[in-house]
Amino acid sequence: MSNLTELLQAADSHRAELLARLAEEKTTAYRLFHGSAEGRPGLTIDRYGDVLLMQTFHHPLSDDEHAAILAHYAPLGLHPVYNDRSGANSRIGNPLPPEELEQAQLPRTISEMGVNYHFQARHQGQDPWLFLDLRAGRRRVMQLAEGKSVLNLFAYTGGVGVAAAKADASFVMNVDFAESSLQVARANAKLNALATRPRCVQSDCFAALRQLSGIGQPKMVRGKKMPPFPELEARQFDVVFLDPPRYAKSPFGVVDLINDYPALFKPALLATAPGGVLICCNNVAQVDRDAWLAQLKRSAEKAGRPVHDAEWITPEDDFPSFDGQPPLKMVLLHV
Fold first, then answer.
1. Contact between 131 and 46 (Cβ < 8 Å)
2. Under 8 Å between Cβ of 44 and 327
3. What pLDDT shows up at residue 79?
4. What distance in Å separates the CA atoms of residue 266 and residue 90, rounded to the nearest whole number?
5. CB–CB of 106/124 below 8 Å?
6. Residue 1: its pLDDT value, please?
7. Which of 87, 130, 143, 182 is exposed most, by the fewest CB atoms within 10 A?
8. Is residue 34 within 8 Å of 11, Cβ to Cβ?
9. 3-state secondary structure string, 215-256?
């Protein structure tokens, strides 16, 4: 028996209770093996409906490892797809045989907590259309959303927004810069019976947030004309979900989760209604969660909107962190 097979068996045992609960919820998407915590850094194995998605980020699978994974999960009867992303910019670099590529590009529907989402193992982008480690965040939003207004920032394919609408939010706004992602978000909404259809706004999040928060986004900055952006009325939301990428630069501002989270945090806080909640995410492993939370509280005090209570949202057991410091940090702030 290979060492990898033993690691996969241990991962199965660790997940047994969670997977039973997810099956009861009709959730068909979850992580089967989280290599960074379970003994093979750089390897992730996910189930998305009837697809077994293997991804490598540090170095490709050896033939023996690939065979061991296929043999271990064969009883599940899934279509295996392997995306090697160990090259530059985490781009998928490995060609697939024609029949495997056809399966990888086949449009599918997956389910999570009663919400349906589109999925393709390979598409024009790189990342799967639903980030599975955010399930705990989507679950918490669904618990909060009924009758509430929800703002989903850096919405990607709208997972949080669709989940909120499914949980009977009164109004949902998804904001993302990429129209290709928002197209999937709109399609995800159509997969579900929703009382209110999320509004999708294609915009730089800085420009959107400055307007929603009442700070305002000028069309000229230091003598330079800014790129076009949709004009939005100032308004506050009962629930704000802030999930920025690690680093991104645009004419409107710089997203930097290590050095300058407050640049986004302040306008997001001002766009949160008094008595509402702001859920902040930080996916940089090297950021200490307690130091980060202390920074958020200082920023809130400075903005005149102190944090009344903070609640950590921990990724579920398919994303184990045996040192209690999961790379993805999610904190719910009562403001």
1. no
2. no
3. 97
4. 31
5. no
6. 60
7. 143
8. yes
9. CCCCCEECCEECCCCCCCCCCCEEEEEECCCCEEEECCEEEE
Mean pLDDT of 40-54: 98
The closest of 297, 289, 291 to 324, measured between CA atoms, is 289
From 74, 222, 53, 206, select the one nearest 121 (Cα to Cα): 53
Decide: 294 and 331 in contact? Cβ < 8 Å: no
pLDDT in tens, 263-300: 999 999 999 999 999 999 999 999 999 999 999 999 99
Strands 171-176, 199-202: pairing is parallel
Amino acid letter for position 32: L
Integer angstrom CA distances of residue 95 from 44, 88, 123: 19, 16, 13
Long-range contacts made by residues 120-128, C-beta under 8 angstroms, separation at least 24? 121/48, 121/51, 121/53, 121/81, 121/83, 122/81, 122/83, 122/92, 122/96, 124/180, 125/180, 125/181, 126/85, 126/90, 126/91, 126/92, 127/156, 128/46, 128/48, 128/53
Write the burial class of residue 156 (CB in 10 Å: 0-12 exposed, 13-18 middle, 19+ buried).
buried
Whole-number percent of the chain with pLDDT over 90: 98
One-letter amino acid at 158 equals G
**Beta bridge partners of residue 239, listed in sequence order:** 150, 277
For 46-55, 122-131, 289-298, 317-326, which range has the lowest pLDDT when averaged over its residues?
317-326
Query: Model confidence over 64-117: pLDDT tens digits?
Result: 999 999 999 999 999 999 999 999 889 999 999 999 999 999 999 999 999 999
pLDDT of residue 324: 82
Q: Which two tokens stand for residue 69?
A: 């994974």
Q: Is the alpha carbon torsion for 127, 17, 25, 9 positive or negative?
A: positive
